[in-house]
């Protein structure tokens, strides 16, 4: 899977509830810190509209009434507390779970009902703004601590052997998932402030660089979770920050997903409402669903799907494209309508898509056909494109 998103934050903020509501994996949830110890890995989805709605014939079995869900990997990590990078709480080994993540959803308890270590307090007692800086800092110090290992030797090699600094840094930070391109981008920004060669950087300069590396390699969006019980001013304070903030109720999403799975209601993740379809619900169940329904109207959905979509489409700038064999019917060789959906970085070409489908197809690539226009494609891919690839292999 090409895209991987991590759910991070202090203990007890609702990361596992978010994860379970998005993946339906069976994970532990409880109102105390450090419920999760080993990271949970699962499959979540982004929501988009399926191109099958453009077809006049043929039945698509890969969407729900024109709503298409495209898989991504999701990771639910253990709660982080201040000084995790030096081993506090569950320690720095848990930061390594963030390695595969291309983006981070910072799950914040916007209700203010848990302190900085995740212990329950009165709602509104803790200021959720305090949780933002701390996570940034832990991630930066995690990168800094890895970067510093053997740095005096490495930086002298850069000097003596004329190596590319971004290559050495990316190599040093492979364990944190930093690419050469990201290292290069961070170095460019760093170079605007510091012109010293690498072997002369002091600790504060290396920390500054680590912060830029964090921003490049682990972009972050905020889920203002427990929005169902959060004071409104907490959400607006978070919104004043320089981040995309999505109010979420992971608990409500989980209740709706479970009720949909059991056949009690019909709910498509990301919808603004649901429909009760079972006539066997108790008064208590109907009452609980009524409360969720009011909340959906107030918040504009549970926010979970919206948050995942924002992370993938906005933060990571991805688009969805659909390779097909038959450009008239949008099918593969066996007649399946729109069998595959690929997430690709905006700006990718049909040739890039060919490689994504298979290296052989990429190597034998001749041209691509835009299935909607029935014309050869001479432009970058766009979101929702249906593409026939013509290859010698
Ligand atoms: N009201 C409300 N409670 C929530 C919401 N999401 C989670 N909770 C509650 O918050 C508590 C902690 O949830 P978890 O999902 O276990 O939190 P976590 O961040 O995974 O915690 P650790 O694994 O300990 O780091 C549980 O009691 C959940 O039921 C929400 O959207 N609204
Ligand atoms: Mg957890």
What's the quick description here?
This protein has 393 residues and is an alpha/beta fold.
Find the CATH topology of the largest domain. Answer: Rossmann fold
Distance between the termini: 23 Å
- Number of domains as seen in the coordinates: 3
* C-alpha geometry: flat
- How would you classify the quaternary structure? single chain
- Total of helices: 12
Q: Helicity range of the residues?
A: 25-40%
Low-confidence stretches: none
What small molecules accompany the polymer chains?
guanosine-5'-triphosphate, magnesium ion
| Largest beta-sheet characterization | 6 strands, mixed
Supply the CATH superfamily name of the largest domain.
Answer: P-loop containing nucleotide triphosphate hydrolases
Rg over CA atoms, rounded to whole Å, is: 23 Å
How many extended strands?
A: 13
Q: SS-based structural class? A: alpha/beta
Q: Identify the CATH architecture of the largest domain.
A: 3-Layer(aba) Sandwich
Name the features.
single chain, about 400 residues, alpha/beta, Rossmann fold, Helicase, Ruva Protein, domain 3, Ubiquitin-like (UB roll), about 35% helix, about 20% strand, binds guanosine-5'-triphosphate, binds magnesium ion
């Amino acid at each position: 899977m090409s895209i991987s998103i991590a759910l991070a934050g202090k203990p007890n903020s609702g990361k596992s509830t978010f994860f379970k509501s998005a993946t339906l994996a069976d994970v532990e949830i409880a109102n105390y810190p450090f419920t999760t110890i080993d990271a949970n890995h699962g499959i979540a989805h982004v929501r988009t509209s399926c191109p099958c709605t453009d077809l006049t014939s043929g039945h698509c079995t890969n969407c729900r009434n024109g709503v298409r869900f495209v898989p991504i990997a999701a990771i639910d990590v253990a709660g982080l507390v201040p000084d995790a990078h030096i081993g506090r709480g569950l320690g720095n080994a848990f930061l390594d779970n963030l390695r595969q993540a291309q983006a981070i959803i910072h799950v914040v308890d916007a209700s203010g009902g848990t302190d900085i270590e995740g212990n329950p307090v009165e709602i509104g007692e803790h200021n959720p703004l305090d949780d933002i800086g701390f996570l940034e800092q832990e991630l930066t110090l995690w990168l800094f601590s890895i970067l510093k290992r053997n740095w005096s030797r490495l930086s002298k090699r850069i000097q003596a052997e004329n190596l590319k600094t971004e290559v050495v840094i990316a190599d040093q930070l492979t364990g944190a998932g930093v690419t050469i391109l990201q290292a290069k981008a961070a170095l460019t920004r760093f170079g605007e402030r510091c012109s010293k060669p690498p072997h002369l950087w002091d600790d504060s300069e290396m920390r500054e660089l680590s912060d830029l590396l964090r921003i490049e390699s682990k972009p972050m969006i905020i889920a203002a979770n427990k929005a169902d019980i959060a004071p409104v001013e907490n959400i607006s304070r978070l919104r004043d920050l320089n981040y995309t903030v999505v109010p979420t109720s992971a608990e409500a999403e989980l209740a709706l997903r479970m009720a949909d799975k059991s056949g009690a209601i019909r709910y498509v993740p990301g919808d603004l409402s649901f429909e009760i379809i079972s006539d066997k619900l108790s008064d208590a169940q109907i009452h609980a669903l009524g409360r969720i329904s009011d909340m959906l109207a107030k918040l504009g959905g549970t926010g979970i799907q919206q948050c995942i979509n924002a992370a993938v489409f906005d933060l990571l700038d991805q688009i969805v494209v659909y390779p097909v064999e038959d450009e008239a019917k949008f099918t593969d060789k066996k007649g399946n309508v729109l069998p595959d959906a690929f997430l690709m970085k905006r700006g990718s070409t049909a040739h890039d898509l060919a490689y994504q489908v298979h290296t052989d197809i990429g190597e034998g690539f001749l041209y691509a056909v835009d299935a909607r226009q029935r014309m050869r494609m001479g432009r970058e891919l766009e979101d929702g494109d249906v593409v026939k690839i013509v290859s010698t292999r």
